[in-house]
Amino acid sequence: MQTKRTIFPNKLLPYALLAPQLAVTLIFFIWPAAQAVKSSFEREDPFGFRTTFIWFENYTRLFSEPGYLNSLTKTAIFAVSVTLLSMSLALLLAVAVNRVLKSNRTYTTLLVWPYAVAPVVVGILWWFMFNPTIGIAPYMLRGLGIDWNHRVDGNQAMILVVIAASWKQISYNFLFFVAGLQSVPQSLNEAAAIDGAGPFKRFWTIVFPLLSPTTFFLLIVNINYAMFDTFGLIDATTNGGPNQATNILVYKVYADGFLGLNIGSSAAQSVVLMLIVIALTAIQFRYIERRVQY
Amino acid sequence: MVENRPWLSFLTHLVLIVGVVVVVFPVYLAFIASTHGSGDFMRGLVPLLPGPHMLENYGRMLTQGISTAGAPPVSIMLMNSTIIAIVIAVGKIAISLLSAYAIVFFKFPFRLLAFWIIFITLMLPVEVRIIPTFAVVANLGLLNSYVGLTLPLIASATATFLFRQFFLTVPDELMEAARVDGAGPMKFFRDILLPLSRTNIAALFVILFIYGWVQYLWPLLVTTDSRYYTVVMGIKRLAATADSEPLWNLVMASVILAMLPPVLVVIFMQRLFVKGLVDTEK
Questions:
Q1: Distance from the CA of B161 to the CA of which of A20, A74, A219, B9 falls in 20 to 30 A?
Q2: Which GO biological process entries does UniProt record here (chain A) (predicted)?
């Protein structure tokens, strides 16, 4: 790994400098994670007196449990929908802002602030809008003949959390798409225009392919966001219900472990989640290595 | 702009205006709700224009809270959130500056190992290790304390990488010159490296302040004493009771109060915010 050509000769100082960060990391990150891995292979008797090592039993049980398989499916649906919805809306807005010359800073300011809104608060805002008794959205939907009640209808609950989660993430995607669009050379666009390509053709054949590094990066970040950062949103809107319809993995691991006190199963779920984050991070870093050559 | 197409310009502005309306509308609705009396929510549809009770609602939430819902005054929770967000941001920046400095400017055994240990924190968000982390904090007796709320979140791989990246671009000559002039490592760090990192620190502070402010799961786990509630988690408790007892105006007043500080930070420090966001993802 890279260092400076010249370095300071001190022997002990670097350890002292690293100590605070390493202490926090070891005590609050590595040790608990190791504990989770350990207890995922164990079973604790109901009174907590003894634990037995049971190999992969927690995992085999987990993957044969319909509730967990349902949660996996719901997570996949949720993550894919949030990613597609928020990325496509953000791309549309970014392309539009990129075409505007004068007022683009105003538009940008008005579009980016939801980044700073906490997921729980996002949940409450949309829950209020879609509240079956007084919300404005159900009122309008009734006019279209749709009876909205996400407390009963699982699909509607999923639609609600997808919309709310995407709303928050638009700002983030928008900023990265704008940055990506600004690095597309204007000369290419002009050359294509001279050759007679219209704005839509230019977008799909020149701009969009050149944006692919940004798009790919955002794809990973958004999946990560939808899987891990939406806990508060689910907690504020649906609590995983109705009937498990929005019980995504992070919510289930909390509900089973903290409220249901099923330590073995919760630990196994934690380990599965860790593997997912590790995979996503690995993909992200591999891709960043490549982006340099683009 | 390559060519002039009036209908396309019209479409562009239309897309943006619709986008802004969609983004702003939920918050507009919440603001309107926060200006009404609680009786206005009985009639089946939320009001769409401001009402006369704004000061009353905000004043009540800031100074009294809703005792039946177990929610302390919002002013206390706002102060807690501010303290926690600032401690997390400053803490993360401080320990990351030090570790990046050690990794870039010194050679020592286990340097690579230290780097990897820090790197691993990226892959272990609190959500995937809830119970064991809670157990550690409980065993250390840190439940219901500012230390317990902040310290476990303070490790930061992203900040360390950012500073490492930046330190690698600092010319070697600066350090050689400092050494020739007799400056020791800590003097070089304080008098040369820190001033050079000013913009990076500021940009990172904006991002990390927001990160600290929006924390929800962790405060929810480690606080049971309402004196330590942060505003983001306090609101959830309010909203949970609002369903049975319609206090929408008061809930929405606290929602607005909880959003305002970080949103203002983004709006007024937009340049730093964008820089911080883009930098931390590299």
A1: A219
A2: transmembrane transport
